[in-house]
Amino acid sequence: MVSAAKVHDLVFLGHYTKDTIISASGTRVVHGGAFNYGAHVAARMGLHVAAVTRLAREDFDVIDTLRQLGVDVSARATPVSTNLRIEYPTPDVDERVITVTGTAGPFTPEEVQDLRARAFVVGASMRSEVGLEVVEELAKKGALLAADVQGFVRVARSGKLVYEAWPEREAVLAHVDVLKADAVEAEMLTGSADVRVAARMLADLGPSEVVLTHRDGVLVYAGGQFHEAGFIPRQLVGRTGRGDTCVAAYVARRLAAVEGRPTGSPAEATVWAAAVTSLKMEAAGPFRQDICAVEDLIRRSYSG
Asked: In which band, very low, low, confident or very high, does the pLDDT at 259 lie, cut at 50, 70 and 90?
């Protein structure tokens, strides 16, 4: 369990997901969940990390792996884990069909009320996991709060995850400092296919920083300025978890001091997030490389 007396740098909140991924390269089952992808990144960056999740006991080996990385994990055992079938029917990696075959149930405010951290990242898979009351409980702590749009606009209908209008949009975003969305979600919320226009419109709803991913890279809007960096994986194997990894790397870099330097600016964090995500997409599952690989990739390919 996560100690209530300990102040972490970053706490990730979200369901574990057992992902069955189907693509032209075949079918594989992997440990998923935004908390899992995010905690791997932040822990390897040397931050003090905690994760709060819900899952079946049969999947607790993912918890053991995180603890071996030094992550403090609070896991609520549930009858079943959240199970997702993620199918990529075409070569377009942004086109996917997600089917829900099981869910671990909603988080409660009591599960987060004793947590203390510099920042929280909410990474739900669908709307039913993290409600407004949980967001409000996190907001009371006065820490930086980041959230992924997907956990609020995706709804399970007849087993399929679909996008629907977000009734509590204004109420939730009033508490969010860093908002992550992908290009599809951003257009759905704003009506604009122009990612820059969409990012501005999302920022107008409350968040001070917007992290917007698309098939080619990441766009950040912060302080009235845009920052962009491309994804450059040598091979595209691990598309699933792209956004989870990207926002985790961005927030972690905004908090972390590297080689004695102060916390990263939005511009620096954008490049860092793109580089981490590029390396993650070269393999299935979470980011597992040494941080020196990220720094080397930035020197080689992003220094300009």
From this structure: very low
